[in-house]
Each structure stands twice: as C-alpha cells, then as structure tokens.
Amino acid sequence: MSLTLTLAVADLDRTEFFYRDILGLQLETFEPAPEFPRVLLLLCGDTAILFRRQQALEASHPALFEHLDRHPKGVGMTLELELPDLEAARRAIDRQQLHLLYELDDDEFKRREIWLHDPDGYLLILT
C-alpha cells in the first residue's frame, strides 16, 4: 500500500526553502500538466507528500477547499520526518531563528526529537 498526502501551502517557494534548505530533504518539482501549477513532491518510502498552492486547490475543488484558511492547517495531524542530518537541521533552524516548540531525548525509543511548525503551521516532529 502507498499513501499520498496533499498539503495546502501559501507559498511554494517558502515551503521549498524550508524543507530543502533548512531540513535538508530531497524535494522534486513538477507540473502535473501544462495547465496545472507547479507542485512539490517529498518521497518518504511508500508515502508521498504533495505540497500544492492553497489557491490552486481552492480553484480546482471549491466545494472541498473553500475557506481553507479559516482553520489552522493540519489540526490533529503530526508529520514525523526522519532527517538525514538532524544536527545540521537544528543549526539551520537556529540561523533562521525559527520557533521550536521543544526538543527532547526520547529514551524509550532511543532518539532525539525536535518539534516545530512548518511555514504553514503543520506540526512536525523531526528525528
């Protein structure tokens, strides 16, 4: 089974900078078809995360996405991402002066976690 998540974002360039340059993740950029706007793709094993402009989603599916900005994005959802270099991401987060919710050492699972929100408010746990 595979899973694809579509996340609405306000600014694809800002999202790309955050996930690629701060977190160090590999993103692909593509246009699904000539008449469709650019999409960012983050592959995580059998899971794909698509980042699409909120305006494009609202235009394509007005009944489903109307007034998407009335509520915080990702309410009740947490994205847990295993980074290739957590320390490098932590230094980049500090350089950008991003707000961390907290850091913790999870002794039970023997890993370190960094909790923060991405530029659109999605809650991330970085390991």
From TrEMBL:
Where's the VOC domain?
Answer: 1-127
Q: Which InterPro entries match?
A: Glyas_Bleomycin-R_OHBP_Dase, Glyas_Fos-R_dOase_dom, VOC_core
Its domain of life reads Bacteria
Pfam families referenced in this protein's UniProt entry, alphabetically? Glyoxalase
Matches recorded under CDD domains: VOC
Q: What is this protein called?
A: VOC domain-containing protein
Species, as recorded: Geothermobacter hydrogeniphilus
Record lineage? Bacteria, Pseudomonadati, Thermodesulfobacteriota, Desulfuromonadia, Desulfuromonadales
